[in-house]
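Risk register update: the risk of archive-format incompatibility is retired. Evidence:
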Amino acid sequence: MPWPTKKLGEIISFEKGKKMAVANDGEPYIGIDGLRTNLYAVYTQEKNGVRCKQDDVLLVWDGAHAGTVGTGLRGFVGSTVVKVLHHNSLENKFLFYLLKLFQEKIRAAAQGAAIPHLSKAFINNLKIPLPSLKIQKQIVERLDKIAEAQKLQGELIQKADELFQSLLHQELNPAGKDWEMKKLGEVLEYEQPTKYLVISTDYKDEYPIPVLTAGKSFVLGNTNEKDGIFPKEKLPVIIFDDFTTAIKFVNFPFKVKSSAMKILHAKKNEADIRFMFYKMLTIKFSHDQHKRYWISECSNLKIPLPSLKVQKQIVAKLSAAQEYKSQLLAQKSKLK
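Archived output:
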């Protein structure tokens, strides 16, 4: 039997928080930051405000983070936040998960260019499924277990990352080791990316070839162009942003959007490309001027370089730590 549907406006209403004087102690005063972090950071000694209990559902109404949903906090509600009141046909935590489900739609419907505000009319007209309270509680129990598993997985991922960073600096520390000093340009050859530039930016997820940047976004999109694809037999490589000095390790065929990068290859019998990538992660390249850096500066930096055999041993340890983190990330994605 299908669940009945209701418009949210038929079963919820909003009580806007108030502006109150902040203090170093007193009762928690919950604003945007508190709701986003689920931590108490601001307090008030005033008593004439909108109180919320720990199981109340709160919603950021104004500002860049409008639409953020939270629960689990008690105190006074800040002026940019609302307390969501509801009919007794709704269980508090079920309402919280419902609003989380519609969070992106609610944000997208916010009004105002400079300071966005949520649209009450849009929220009130959202149609939601409304099972019985018994079923709501069963759903909440399942979602709580998933959220707890995600939290645990997140903690494991953080520890895996800490392990990798610790290993990175431990294994690449040259102290007490007879490693030869080499310039980066002596063991890494560069290739200009010109022949791999994408022609069209009409990217689609179903296209087979990723278009890369060395910047934070890494994959800009996918293309179906068949010419000018970086060949598999020349992989793996490091792509180096010539202006920001950002680096990415690449082991799959690709095209690029910009010519403002160098494609770096390790010289055979001298360097392992993944070792060089790990080593470059530990270098703080200077990039405070708007200029190209690889040829003029970075290629001339000297690094301690162990034998190729030792490089591969170090790579094996660091890659195992990264693989462990990748497995944890894959497991976490399945919990969504």
